[in-house]
Amino acid sequence: MEPTAGPVLYRQLQLWDPSLESGQEEEEEEEETSELVVPDPRRPQDSSRDEAGGLPGAWARLVAALLLLAVGFSLAVRQLHASSGSAAPPPSGHSHHPGVYHHGGVVSPAGQKLLVAGGNVVDAGVGAALCLAVVHPHATGLGATFWGLFHNSTSGSSTALTPGPARTLAPGLGLPSALPALRLLHAHFGRLPWPRLLVGPASLAQDGFLVDTALAGALAARSTEGLCPLLCHADGTPLGPGARATNPKLAAVLRGAAVAPTPDLAGDALLSLLARDLGLRGPSPGPRPTLEPALQLPMPQGILSTTPSPSAGPELLARVEAALRSGGPSPDPCLLVPRAPVTPGSGVLATIDSSGSVLLLTSSLNSSFGSGHLSPSTGILLSDLVAESTSGGWACPLVLHGGSDDTEADVLGLVASGNPVVARVTTRALLSRLAGPQAQAQQQQQGPTQSPSICGQGTLLQVAAHAEHAHVSSVPSGCCTFQGF
Predict the structure, then answer these.
(1) pTM, whole model, 2 decimals?
(2) In whole angstroms, what is the distance from residue 18 CA to residue 4 CA?
(3) Residue 307: pLDDT band by 50, 70, 90 thresholds?
């Protein structure tokens, strides 16, 4: 139907469209045939034209505004993600088997959220270590001693975290150094604010966590003396799998550490509380944890880095060097960590990103639940790792990486726990990896566990960056939780 009134004036709303760039002639035709968008308010409008020829003007304006809003929001989100470096690119449409991730991975139930939030491998590793300090007091904790190895893929350098000589807080009680060590590591290499890393652990301690099979098994294997009421029922029996445990005193310590301005103050505040519990005047802190260049051994496949003394790192390098001089023994694919008469109470974790940055952490209470002495003011189980103990005699995390001029090279990280012969086991694992795909396939075939009980005897964690992906696994397989994104 034609309009009955005079001519109607049109003002075309210019929206971006790829078809508008097809040529000047098409633009002219578009103008001649364009529908009503914004009519002249001075002229009467034809409602029959609206019904037959397109959307009414008001609806068209609304649709156009929504389109512009969507485009602007999309551009803003892209810019925000690009500036923060924390977002993953759009899904590529392909998936991988468990243990292979596009951006980063962590061998621990904790730490993934810190990676997704824009943190790096140090943030994720330190955050996971603090969470494990709450939920696995039989293996690690704020009373434990920490060793670490961090490889920075950007600089190609490797740095070792060393706790210093073991010292005694009181007879049979080791001096805690976990908080100063983890805070020092984060201060130099972390990306997220330090308080952000304490949120999760403090919430776990305050709100409670479910006892898992590892902790329940450790509780069942020893008396509950010194562990109540933290890990016992009201009748004094140990908590079983699925029971809820809380540690509000430890939550308060973690919240205090979050606001401490320096690593030294975080450790000193804890020592003051412990000294009050033990009736001490206030022990001197003694040697602090330090960061120092890693021990290195050049190899045909790259550079091998590990921790210096006090640890088993020097023994590890000596074993590898001897194997290389002798032409390399045929690798043994059976890499299950042998059971030892005395297994140290220890914990390990590993984080890696697809660029090849790696953090390996290992900690020890020396015995399961350490000394068994629970500090009532802090909720911390103190270790029995004292000067006479074989401090770090089994700790030897290693990273095999390319030279400083080859930061794109594949990176391999290995860290094991729970056995004095860990240097021998780690050496065999390294040689198996270097022997080629066939030996690696044999190694993976040996991984599945025959019995769940074997998981508590010692675990070897393996992380690698290959083909722009992060790979995480463990031997025996199934003993550890993998998370990534």
Answers:
(1) 0.76
(2) 36
(3) very high
